[in-house]
Automatic annotation (TrEMBL):
Alphabetical keyword list: Glycosidase, Hydrolase
Active site: 374 (nucleophile)
Organism: Treponema primitia (strain ATCC BAA-887 / DSM 12427 / ZAS-2)
Protein name listed in UniProt: Beta-glucosidase (Gentiobiase) (Cellobiase) (Beta-D-glucoside glucohydrolase) (Amygdalase)
MF term (GO), any: beta-glucosidase activity
Cellular component terms per the entry's GO annotation: cytosol
Keyword Calcium among UniProt keywords: no
Enzyme Commission number, as recorded: 3.2.1.21
Similarity comment text for this entry: Belongs to the glycosyl hydrolase 1 family.
Keyword Hydrolase: yes
BP terms from Gene Ontology: carbohydrate catabolic process
InterPro entries: GH, GH_1_N_CS, Glyco_hydro_1, Glyco_hydro_1_AS
């Protein structure tokens, strides 16, 4: 049997994409609550004027305000996860629920909500895998400090981390620090609550924000190891498998360059220092990081226990201007369409072998246990007259990716702890804010305008994944 006996099968969501109840239970407005939905969402996230307007004046529909109301449905939803046989459930804690203004006293109502959620997981024998920060922070920290661009955020986050690590030390054994930390370099507001007023300052602000997050991540690792020595805490990166479009050396160098820049933040978390090339690159780009001797010592002494990552698709890269314009859609990293691959409804190229490549790349690079914490297919699901959803396309996507995982474990000796499919229940899409971009095994009756009954129902993939888990990956 390829998969270890204790392999952690499950699914993943994020607090802001599922919970809703955005001002209930003492929660404050969070950065994720001020982004509209729809195809232009990424453009809005990158537009400082739009974000400032949204913060100052809430007008229109904001998907995270309702999401799928997991806040009130979590018992029902966790029972469905248990029916599938989940061993692990990845979610996040909303910082804005625990410290509504980022400082002051912790909000007991918020702490109690997660207590109840984790108790529900325990009742069903499900291990929580909890992300401390998943693209969310109190808006007040953006308006006061410009988010993670300021080192003032670091002690506030450390206090938040120590609060929840202490509170849940007997309920949570697996933690992640920051979700897809490398995305901060591409989308500073979504990733770090940073508003970039001057485009010329984007790299400086993004890199400093990412550095400050790295310091906070190391402090969280330190806190976790002190508070709960038996727990494991990991990093999380958006993995990118890229192929040279041709065998031209320049295309291969472009692939190498993109990979190095994509993973250098994880290098700090898993190796304990910045790679030399990064400091040279930042110097060349005129970026001056505020790095202290204490930061360097902290990095070296507090590396993560494991490396987790998301993987959805791959891309191709080229330096040829004649074909460089044929970009794949939905790919924030850049890159162009690979003519050898099919694409999803949103233009993400489907590449199971790319997952095996990513697993080998990351294991070779870090020699640490790996955990796939996001993988899935965003698609338009059709509800049949009898209420069923025959999502064979999702089953095919996941089946081929599980096969890739199996090969990496069995043939390549990669140490893989677990697998949580993304959006195990339909949730708001982070990239577009739509409900029509569905990932889940469980259909939620909710549309792009926040209308619907919120009724839950099982898709065809629900039964398929149940059999995968029951057989520990042998029946696909």
């Amino acid at each position: 049997m390829a998969f270890p006996k204790n392999f952690l099968w499950g699914g993943a969501i994020a607090a802001h994409q599922a919970e809703g109840a955005y001002l209930e239970g003492g929660k404050s407005l969070a950065t994720c609550d001020v982004i509209h939905g729809g195809k232009g969402r990424i453009a809005e996230i990158l537009d400082p004027a739009a974000i400032k307007t949204n913060i100052a004046k809430q007008e229109g529909y904001f998907p995270e305000h309702i999401a799928v109301d997991f806040y009130h449905h979590y018992k029902e939803d966790i029972a469905l996860f248990a029916e599938m046989g989940f061993k692990v459930f990845r979610t996040s804690i909303s910082w804005a629920r625990i410290f509504p203004n980022g400082d002051g006293d912790p909000n007991e109502a918020g702490l109690a909500f997660y207590d109840s959620m984790f108790d529900e997981c325990a009742k069903h024998g499900i291990e929580p895998l909890v992300t401390l920060s998943h693209w969310e922070m109190p808006v007040s920290l953006t308006t006061k400090y410009n988010g993670w661009a300021s080192r003032e955020i670091i002690p506030l986050f450390e206090r938040y981390a120590r609060t929840v690590l202490t509170r849940y030390k007997n309920k949570v054994r697996y933690w992640l620090t920051f979700n897809e930390i490398n995305m901060t370099l591409h989308m500073p507001f979504m990733g770090a609550g940073v508003i970039v007023d001057n485009p010329a300052q984007k790299k400086q602000l993004s890199c400093q924000a990412a550095h400050n997050m790295l310091v906070a991540s190391a402090l969280s690792v330190k806190a976790c190891h002190e508070i709960s020595p038996a727990a494991k805490i990991g990093s999380m990166v958006a993995a990118m498998t890229a192929y040279p479009y041709s065998c031209k050396p320049e295309d291969t160098w472009e692939k190498t360059r993109m990979e190095r820049e994509n993973y250098y933040l994880t290098d700090v978390q898993a190796r304990g220092s910045y790679p030399p090339f990064v400091l040279k690159l930042l110097e060349k780009d005129g970026v001056k990081l505020d790095i202290t001797a204490d930061d360097k010592k902290l990095f070296a002494e507090n590396i993560v226990d494991f490396v987790s990552f998301s993987y959805y698709s791959s891309s191709a890269v080229t330096t040829d201007p004649a074909i460089a314009g044929d970009k794949g859609t939905g790919n924030i990293f850049g890159g162009i369409k690979n003519p050898h691959l099919k694409s999803s409804d949103w233009g993400w190229q489907i590449d199971p072998l790319g997952l095996r490549i990513a697993l080998n790349f990351l294991y070779d690079r870090y020699q640490k246990p790996l955990f796939i914490v996001e993988n899935g297919l965003g698609a338009v699901d059709k509800v049949e007259p009898d209420g069923s959803v025959n999502d064979d396309y999702r089953i095919e996507y996941l089946r081929e990716h599980v096969k890739a995982m199996k090969a990496a474990i069995e043939e390549d000796a990669v140490e893989l702890w677990g697998y949580t499919t993304w959006g195990c229940i339909d949730i708001v899409s982070a990239s577009t804010g739509e409900m029509s971009k569905r990932y889940g095994f469980i259909y939620v009756d909710q549309d792009n305008d926040g209308k619907g009954t919120l009724r839950r129902s099982k898709k065809k993939s629900f039964g398929w994944y149940k059999k995968v888990i029951e057989s520990n990956g042998e029946v696909l």
